[in-house]
Amino acid sequence: MLEINNLCVQYGDAAAVRDLSLTLGDNEIVTLVGPTGCGKTSVLRTVAGLIQPSAGEIRIGKLRIDSKRNVPPEKRRVGLVFQDFALFPHLSVADNVAFRLKDRAPAERWIEQLGLAAHRHAMPDTLSGGQKQRVALARALAHAPALLLLDEPLASLDAALKAQLRWEIRQALKAAGVPAIWVTHDQTEALSVGDRMGIMCDGRLEQIGEPDACFRQPASRFVARFLGDAAFLPGELGHTHVHTALGDAPIGDGVPANPARVDVLVRPDDLSLTPSTNGNSRIEWSRYEGETRLYGVRLDTGGELRVRTNHEHHLADGAAVDTRICAGHPLALFAPEPAARPAGEPIA
Amino acid sequence: MTRTPLSYLPAALAAAAALAPVAVLVWMSVGADLLIDGRAFEIALNTVALTLLTVAGAVLIGVPLAVVTTYADLAFRRVWVAVLAAPLAVPSYLGAFAFFAAFGPGGEIETVAGLATPRAQGLAGATLVMTLYTYPFVLISTRAALQSLDANVVDAARTLGLSLPAALLRIVLPRAANGIAAGSLLVALYTLSDFATPAIMQLDTFTRMIYVEYNAFGLDRAALMSLQLLALVVIVLFFESRVRVRRERPGRILRLPLGNGVKAAALLLAGLVVLAALVLPVAIFGAWLVREGVVGFEPAYALNSAYAALLAAAGAVILALPVAYAASVGWIGRLCERATYLGFGIPGIVMGTALLYLGLRLPLLYQTLTLLVLAYVLRFLPLAVGAVRSSTERVENNLVGAARSLGATPGEAFRRVSLPLILPGIVAAAALVFLEAMRELPATLLLRPTGFDTLATYLWRVYEAGYLGRGAVPALALVVVSGVALVLMLSGEARRRRLTAG
């Protein structure tokens, strides 16, 4: 449906997007996530036609766009949902949703489907944030786009609403059978709504893949840290296992080719704690999180790790414990960073 | 990417036109003798004294009324606020005429009620009139400052151990001080610019003496005094640029439990002010109308006023659109916008002097309606720019982008999204300029073509000839025009508040 090849976007001297390639299948939702200023919104605006690419090409269905050949936004059949919703303030909800429709039936259908029937005649100023978001989505979908772009659609809403709307929007997109690129800076959102996710940093796409693959086997330390709590333990590569100071873990595919020394990515739930007087660490702090408990653990060799355990566990601060790797699945391995650190000191 | 926006050209033209009067004044005063004698000093002293006394008077009336109308539970509070703001819309010369006619031996008050009153003239008379028509600046700006204060902040101060009066003094006053200062500076600016009130009250200020020099064909001396007056204006503008009115996130508004005594005193003050500023002039003009009828008045005066004002409104809007647009594009545009604001600071009599001189050099323009309309446009362009800008700011970039992503062409996006959002601003801009130009006196006096009388200049001729009673019709017509302006001003204010609240 959408194919982006080697896209570059320049603002004056500054490069916002560098050499980015991405394809989007029919009916697929891809989330683009990254820190503020990583270029993810520029990708969207370029696909929408609000910015011209400086190099590379974009194919939308039969359309081809590159730095010389532009197609105006209104010819692309690309819907766009803005972070600030961009509802027309002088038009009612119904008129916003049916903005360019001759036959208003699709507008009515989406108004019903997204639970906006009671607000049909309301003006945008009088709506709550969540309602505005639904109107923006209904407006975009009612115009039957070939492809929908969502630019941080939930960024201006509060947390409780986010979790609910996130899923509602995904359901609506799937029901409409519209493929979508969904830009966000919230990694939980990106992990949960995308069929695939792309992680961007400094204008480049660092990794793209299914969310659990990105989470388990991040392509870089940046991706590993961006998607969740991450620590890197130095380890030595064996035949079937990697050996670290905190025990062994199985090896999967994608092992760094040459070196025997590697850094192992451990997340809080890859570790376990056992009370032990001759253990290797001490509890520094603990945080109760409802279903789980998160511990800050100081290793006797120095360095701090975070460990997530079952909520039934309760260890007092200062308690001596033994910290071990307990993951049954392969852990991601990275070539050691050039600046060598003292052995046994993980980076939180 | 960095091509110069097309709107910069007309915007730069507008800016250059706004700067022209000052350049002309400097040029024409170069030849004049710089006379800093006792007389010049006296004129400067009178001007400064009138300004300072008026500011003091406006603060004394405006601040208490602002506190009471914002924080106390008054009956008909909205009505009080509207009525108390009304004098701002009335040109002060109407008040000056009324006070001139009402007070003193042989005045209307003595004729009707048999009460002997002192004459309203000189510094005291001018101060009284100016105060009555400028205090709303302080009232409005102080109210805005007080309204933006969150009552929770006062409550927080009290939970930290401050008594209510101490909290008002230490928490409310410092933050309202900027609002009071902003209002006071507007009062000063308005007073410095006002021509008719000191002229009628026979107080020799710069504005009055510029007109005297003009009548005595001393255009060079008029220019020199214009520059001296502008220097005072610049001082006020400098202070104004230093005053930052902080916008706070509006919160819960404070409610003060005021005693009935305080409330009664406030209502008495408000009643007296309304009586003097609004009721008295209308009563006097009404009495004239009954006594003298419509003798001497020709509908042509009203038509002339409307015609010139209509041209001014069209001209101002046509110039304001590119300026407002350019200001939203980049810093050069914003610079042009700032330049057009000069017109507001240039007193009408000064603008008149500058353009008159220009007209004498360019016979093509001399004694033409074009020159008069140009003066209106330059003076009131800031009003138009402000009104248009407040509406163009509603058209965020994303709205046009949204329309186009839904399949609208640029033309359709403009017609269906941008235009409906800008149009109210354009209409408001045109109406504001029209109503201001209808009431303008000093520049009109200097620049009107021979035989072209407007409502305001006819009223002035009636005054100079001493047949005050014949001014009934134009005066009442101007009161009506002022009323319309007030309604427009208040509804615009209400609309802005709705928008920013949303």
Order of helices and strands of chain A: EEEHEEEHHHEHEHEEHHEEEEEEEEEE
Which sequence of strands runs across the widest sheet of chain A? 6-7-8-3-9-10
Number of H- or I-type helical stretches of chain A: 8
* Radius of gyration from the alpha-carbon trace of chain B, in angstroms: 24 Å
Structure description:
The complex is a heterodimer of chains A (348) and B (502). Mean pLDDT of chain A is 89; it is low at 342-348. In chain A, a hairpin with a 3-residue loop joins strand 11 (231-237) and strand 12. Chain A is built from eight helices and 20 strands. By secondary structure, chain A is of the alpha+beta class. Chain B has 502 residues and is an all-alpha fold. Chain B has one domain (8-501): Orthogonal Bundle (MetI-like fold). Helix content of chain B is 77%, strand content 0%. Chain B contains 22 helices and no strands. Chain B has helices at 8-29, 38-71, 77-85, 92-102, 108-113, 122-147, 151-159, 164-193, 196-200, 206-215, 219-242, 260-292, 299-329, 331-340, 342-345, 348-361, 369-392, 397-405, 410-439, 442-447, 455-465, 472-501. The longest helix of chain B has 34 residues, at 38-71. The two termini of chain B are 34 Å apart. The model of chain B has no long low-confidence stretch (mean pLDDT 86).
List keywords for this structure.
heterodimer; A: about 350 residues; alpha+beta; Rossmann fold; OB fold (Dihydrolipoamide Acetyltransferase, E2P); 2 domains; six-stranded mixed sheet; five-stranded antiparallel sheet; 8 helices; 20 strands; globular; disordered C terminus; B: about 500 residues; mainly alpha; MetI-like fold; about 0% strand
